[in-house]
Amino acid sequence: MANEALERARAGYEAVERRYVEALQAKGLRFQSRAEGLASQKRCADLRRHLADAGAAVRNAGASLVCGYLSPACVECTGADGSETISTTFKCHRDCYFCFNHNVADYDRFFHEGCPWEDELERAAAERQQLACVGLTGGEPLLDFENAIRFFERARELFPEAHLRMYTSGDLLTEERVVRLRDAGLDEIRFSVKDDDTPEMQQRVLDAMRLAKRYLPSVMAEMPVIPGAGEHMRNLLRAFDDVGLDGINLLEFCFPFCNWPEFERRGFSLKNPPFDVMYDYGYSGGLAVAGSEELILELMLWAREEGLRLGLHYCSLDNKHRSEIRQKNERAKDVHPCLVFDDQDFFLKAVKVFGPDVEPVRTALREAGCTDMIEDAAEGSLAFSPEHLGALRGVVRADGAPVEPQLCPFVYELDGDDAYLTDVSLCPAPVR
User: Fold this and answer.
1) Which residues contact 5 (CB under 8 A, 6 or more apart)?
2) What does the CA dihedral 251, 254, 256, 259 come to, rounded to 10 degrees?
3) Which of 47, 116, 123, 136 makes the best surface tag, with the fewest CB within 10 Å?
4) Where are the alpha helices (DSSP H) in 128-265?
5) φ and ψ of 427, to 5 deg
6) Which of 347, 382, 389 is nearest to 362 (CA)?
7) Hey, which residues does 221 pair with through a beta bridge?
């Protein structure tokens, strides 16, 4: 006997994702086929397993993988002790076709007027007495150098124990400037390297890295990994290792909802399905480009085999989303006894059963002492805490078929004075 209530619920979530993709396709964006996307997911899952077997640390439900050194700022991006990244300026002497800033609210105003960095630091201090990490990004912070110095001096006053970092292309770094940044409290500098930089530009950034290493505690690179750039990336990783970088953040390459013709001209397509868990995320990165994740994982395996010493961190688009979900859901850890905070992907989670599964599951839960359940007659479902999944071992419905519990992630939303929970997907919840 088919479970029609479960099929309706699944179809509802699938329709949300399908409409999302179709609406963007209607605007001219190109997604890989669903079959291609699922095959890529499987290849990436295999690569993750190989990396884990080789000693890589798997973080945030696989959204982050680490070999060797990991910056404290990367730990706290999805950590519990707090991290803020702020801009003093959106101005930049580069013109990267994939820049996220154009997808940031009020970009044009901040570009011309400057960013309200003082207000942002004061807001952060008012919201919490201490932050583990504070970062300065851009634009190019070195185009607004005096404000960059003032930023770090004020951040050190407000958060004396915080790890302070800065992102830069490195083009405008001089010995005088790096000394002043060190004296203002800078702990870490991250060089944003681009795959399509000329050899002269890449040599300049390598020289800037060597300069920074003379004065700063931590020197890193951070760059999106563009499909098709495997050989070039291997050469860069060797060069970074020769410089003695502490590590590199390998970012999943993303389309930030602008400048699509440049992505299309290069033959890129977007991941399909677009997200691990479908949700209206606020991160300005947008959508992941197909092929980037697979190349990153292959590069990490290669670097291990090559014996490179620098730390390698794969930061996926999903990992960026983890930070947002944690900030929303941590405040609601105890919002309802049927919901459990997942400390891996940071969603609130309940188990649901549907249709003919409801009655035998309710009986089994009561016999196991579980009294906290939510029944939704319109949906034909019963929800309960994942902590009670074991009570369903051996439970069958009236026709003798095993019940099919589903794990359902939720996001805790605040809208002014109103708070509510949004359920975002279903996936089978194995009974062990």
Assistant:
1) 354, 355, 379, 380, 381
2) 120
3) 123
4) 145-158, 175-183, 199-213, 230-243, 260-265
5) -150, 150
6) 382
7) 191, 248
Tokens 């002014």 sit on residue: 416
Residue-by-residue DSSP string for 62-114: GTEEEES---HHHHHHTSSS-EEEEES----S---TT-SGGGSTTHHHHHHH-
Q: pLDDT tens digits for 134-181? A: 999 999 999 999 999 999 999 999 999 999 999 999 999 999 999 999
**Block residue for tokens 């001089």:** 174
Q: Please list the ranges in the chain whose pLDDT falls under 50.
A: none
* Bridge partners, 411 (sequence order): 422
Q: What pTM value is reported for the model?
A: 0.94
Q: Which two tokens stand for residue 211?
A: 């300069």
Q: Looking at residue 396, what DSSP letter applies?
A: B
d(CA 252, CA 402): 40
Angstrom distance (rounded) from CA 20 to CA 147: 41
**Phi, psi of 391, rounded to the nearest 5 degrees:** -65, -15
Which residue's structure tokens are 């800037």?
208
Integer angstrom CA distances of residue 412 from 40, 196, 217, 417? 31, 41, 39, 13
First-to-last CA distance in the chain?
24
CB 370 within 8 A of CB 388: yes
CB 301 within 8 A of CB 58: no
Cα–Cα distance measured from residue 421 to residue 432, given in angstroms and rounded to the nearest whole number: 28
For residue 222, give the H/E element and its range. strand 218-225
